[in-house]
Write a structure and sequence with these properties.
176 residues; 20% strand; globular; 5 helices; Leucine Aminopeptidase, subunit E, domain 1; binds ligand AR6; alpha/beta; single chain
């Protein structure tokens, strides 16, 4: 599914984010930037060791923030590593932190003069965020951002399985 907001395209696809050719791909990292499983493991495996060396230099990223590295062997120019919240019942400010993870990633992309960016479903795996809510926050934050920021031309949500795609599609239909 694809929608237009002003000049920008927001698109949903099923796929593997490590194969994306957008200027930026976003990693769902942990605060220690140490790598891990899920999309984080996949990105580090595909990118090679250089981005882990950059992550070690940076050292830390709190939940809701984002840091930038180069992209090693990936086709993207940059990897933006953001840290979503661990879901602990929804009463610990998880929604604001997830919104912030998307917004900070988009802001870092604009700072790097990127025109296109791919996101995975941040926090919706190991970190346990309920899928529908995670999808709604991801899409609402992105739509609000591209309304205000002309530079970003394409935001792709690269969703690893059909159920995640379906949740994003249903939430996107509600928002437009
Ligand atoms: N491309 C796109 N999406 C993917 C890929 C891929 N190659 N691989 C997995 N996903 P998760 P989180 C999906 O657990 O919940 C790591 O260990 C996956 O199916 O990767 O933010 C970090 O180091 C799910 O829909 O991220 C952290 O410790 C989504 O990506 C922790 O997990 C996010 O799942 C972060 O947990």
């Amino acid at each position: 599914m694809e929608i237009n907001i002003n000049e920008a395209v927001i698109s949903l696809v099923v796929g593997d984010i490590t194969k994306e050719k957008t200027d930026v791909i976003v990693n769902a990292a942990n605060s220690g930037l140490r790598g891990g499983g899920g999309v984080d493991g996949a990105i580090h495996r595909a990118a090679g060791p250089s981005i882990m060396a950059e992550c070690r230099q940076i050292g830390y990223c709190p939940a809701g923030q984002a840091v930038v590295t180069t992209a090693g062997n990936l086709q993207a120019k940059y990897v933006i590593h953001t840290v979503g919240p661990v879901y602990r019942g929804g009463t610990k400010g998880e929604d604001r932190l997830l919104e912030s993870a998307y917004r900070e990633s988009l802001e870092q992309a604009v700072r790097k003069k990127a025109a296109s960016i791919s996101f995975p479903a941040i926090s919706a795996g190991v970190y346990g965020y309920p899928l529908r809510e995670a999808a709604r926050i991801a899409l609402k934050t992105t739509i609000d951002f591209v309304k205000e920021n002309q530079r970003i031309e394409l935001v792709r949500f690269v969703l690893f399985s059909r159920d995640v795609y379906d949740a994003f599609e249903e939430e996107l239909k509600k928002l437009v």
